[in-house]
């Protein structure tokens, strides 16, 4: 990535546009930094390391009780949102739940399933309700009181019911 940024900045500098080159290089570095930071986000289908990265990024208090072979990481975000990330014994984030006065960062929470969320949100008038063999997603609420959950049905551990995810 550093080589790419260097090559682009050298190309711009060769055009005799030093000021523009510095501005462009800064923008490229900023974008690269944002893209690489996104890969550390905990998300549905992510791993335990990404949950720990979220704790640091959000500056959130956390607790992690274990139920039925599942560790639930509960994080209280500074904006008042409570996020629960359910991690199975092999370290897979197979479910997330949330509640709070504002909507959570769905792109961060849902990862590759975010596109499903946005598509469904455009099609449904109130809230989101998706039920497929790959994912179940429920989100709703009203001003200052939002909640929801998303989980991977095929990854639910034995002994844990879908109703236990909140």
Describe the structure.
The protein has 166 residues and is an alpha+beta fold. It has 2 domains: 2-38; 48-164, no CATH class. The protein is 36% helix and 27% strand. The protein is built from 5 helices and 8 strands, in the order H-H-H-E-E-E-E-E-H-H-E-E-E. It has helices spanning 2-14, 18-38, 48-58, 106-110, 114-123; strands at residues 61-63, 66-67, 70-76, 82-87, 93-100, 128-131, 136-142, 145-151. A hairpin with a 4-residue loop joins strand 6 and strand 7 (136-142). Helix 1 (2-14) packs antiparallel against helix 2 (18-38). It is globular, with a radius of gyration of 20 Å.
Brief account:
This protein is an alpha+beta fold and 166 residues long. The chain has five helices and eight strands; from the N terminus they run αααβββββααβββ.
Uncertain residue segments: 1-41
Strand content: 25-35%
Rounded to an integer, what's the Rg over CA atoms?
A: 20 Å
Q: What is the string of SSEs from the N terminus onward?
A: HHHEEEEEHHEEE
Structural class determined from secondary elements:
alpha+beta
| Count of alpha and pi helical runs | 5
- Main sheet attributes: strand count, strand direction, barrel closure: 8 strands, antiparallel
| Portion in helices | 25-40%
Give the N-to-C terminal Cα separation.
40 Å
Strand element count: 8
Shape: globular
Q: How many domains make up the 3D coordinates?
A: 2
Q: pLDDT average, as an integer?
A: 76
């Amino acid at each position: 990535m550093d080589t790419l940024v260097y090559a682009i900045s050298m190309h711009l500098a060769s055009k005799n546009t030093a000021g523009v080159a510095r501005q462009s290089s800064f923008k490229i570095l900023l974008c690269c930094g944002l893209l690489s930071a996104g890969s550390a986000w905990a998300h549905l289908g992510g791993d335990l390391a990404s949950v720990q990265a979220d704790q640091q990024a959000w500056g959130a208090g956390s607790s992690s009780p274990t139920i039925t072979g599942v560790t639930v990481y509960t994080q209280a975000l500074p904006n008042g949102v409570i996020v629960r990330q359910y991690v199975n014994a092999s370290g897979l984030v197979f479910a997330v739940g949330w509640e709070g006065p504002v909507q959570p960062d769905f792109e961060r929470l849902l990862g590759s399933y975010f596109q499903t969320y946005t598509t469904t949100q455009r099609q449904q008038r109130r809230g989101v309700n998706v039920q497929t063999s790959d994912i179940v997603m429920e989100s709703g609420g009203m001003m200052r009181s939002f909640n929801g959950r998303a989980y991977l049905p095929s990854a639910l551990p034995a002994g844990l019911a879908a109703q236990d995810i909140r």
